[in-house]
Amino acid sequence: MTATPTPLYKQSHAELAFADSPPGHATYFEEDFGLYKLEGRILYNLSGDDPSILSVHGARGDYTKANPISFGLQQRGHSLLGINMSGHSKAGILRPEQTTLANNILEVERFYGHLGASRPRTVIGYSLGGTPALKLLQKHATEIDKLILFYPALYSSQAYDKSYGAEFRKAISAPFSYLQSDTLDLLRSFKGKLLLIKGEYDGLEPTEYGKPAGTAVGEVIINGNKYYSPIPKEVIDLVCGAIPEERRQFIEIPGCDHSIILWMRNNPQQADKIVEQIDQFIRS
After folding, report:
1. Whole-structure pTM over 0.90, yes or no?
2. CATH: 1.20.1300.10, 3.40.50.1820, 3.90.226.10, 3.40.1190.20. Which one for 26-283?
3. Residue 3 pLDDT > 80, yes or no?
């Protein structure tokens, strides 16, 4: 059994996106990366089990961004570790130009070591967090039983070492750059189960909205409403097609774009049904 990290401190809520109080017991700890430290939060089930779920946030986020999912899973009997990655928020300590996706991949790998070893593990990745989540398969594919990817992003491996900002955007904006990702082969060789979740208006076909093939649509007006679709349609298709049908599930949320978590905050009853589906998937 992995020893529970010592609860050192709780970062100021001024640095975190949301000040929600966890529904159950939580502890907080720092992971030391030398020049900086990042905080992790463990949400414990009633039995106090070591966490078996790792939650990896997306760009411009921290571990509180996933609270609608994380809190719902805690209430359903799961222990979960949420983490902060560098460069994406005040809680990420470093400024974007001071860090890279490669650093985030290393950070997630370190935090993964705090999961309990006594039960199968589940990894949840949100948007940009899908890449570090999938990179865990490189060393831990036999330990991970379930993958849950919310509107996942795939990036060219050449972008990993580019500082966040202009360099990174340039590296990922070229049409079909995601085909140079090294995570697709990892996913194709994965023997566990995949749950893919996206909004109806994310992963849109770019050519239907006047954008070049192999890119994302971005902001678009549909029936008078503004939606945000930063994930290329082919990325969703590639992720879905990487796992055989009998080992994958797919949830598309009607009327929602890339901002699923915000949608869940605004639609708590429907959100609860989604968390219930996630819970059932983890237990399947």
Report:
1. yes
2. 3.40.50.1820
3. no
